[in-house]
Amino acid sequence: MKIPFHKYQGTGNDFVIIDQREHFCIDKTDQPLIEKLCDRRFGIGADGLMLLQNKAGFDFEMVYFNSDGRESSMCGNGGRCITAFAHSLGVFQERCRFWAIDGEHEALVRPEDQWVELKMIDVDDIETGDGFYYLNTGSPHYVTFTDALAELDVYQAGRAVRYSERFREQGTNVNFVQLEPRGIAVATYERGVEDETLSCGTGVTAAAIAYHLKQANGVDRVPIRVKGGELEVRFRPQEKGFSEIWLCGPAEMVFTGEIEA
Fold this sequence. Notes:
By secondary structure, this protein is an alpha+beta fold. Helix content is 17%, strand content 43%.
């Protein structure tokens, strides 16, 4: 069976996307196949794989799998990339509503500069611990601040938290954040990928909220630098939690093709 695919990336976070609106190639039980397609030596290579599917009442549905082949929680950069893909297919003109594992999302596309803005879920349950914040922005995230991000071994430090006694069973994503003159820099260890990625959308969203809480300076728009490029998160602080959270940045097609599976 030949599977047509598109490869997209958003600030270095890369994804295989398959259009399943008319013909089904993959279902949620195909973990070995999804893992193989994401393999960077024996497959296409990606941090994750997404299926674009029909959903009554919405422009489309996003079904997301980590590179280990398992269906996962929300992926912010994945949401921006699948929005760009759907736009390229003519599914919508400028704004869309789609369904993901964490519920409804809105998104808009500026095709002239490949910029996609994605509305994330509201956040109202934030744990403030000794040197860390823990919150769910569609996926669970542990956020901690550092003064030496460039020297940090993100893989080893992230893995130590992800496989700690608290998080070993369910896992968590781990974000390391450094304050900059203009916003923050973020590095993320992602569960499911089990490595550092060049960018993580739900991770930088969590980091921006943690930055707001740490600084207590009323900031509601945060420029963010990741190893894969530049993003921006904006939000509206509430008496308890945050609403109108938007993850904004570039989303680009890398290449398209067919693969025998």
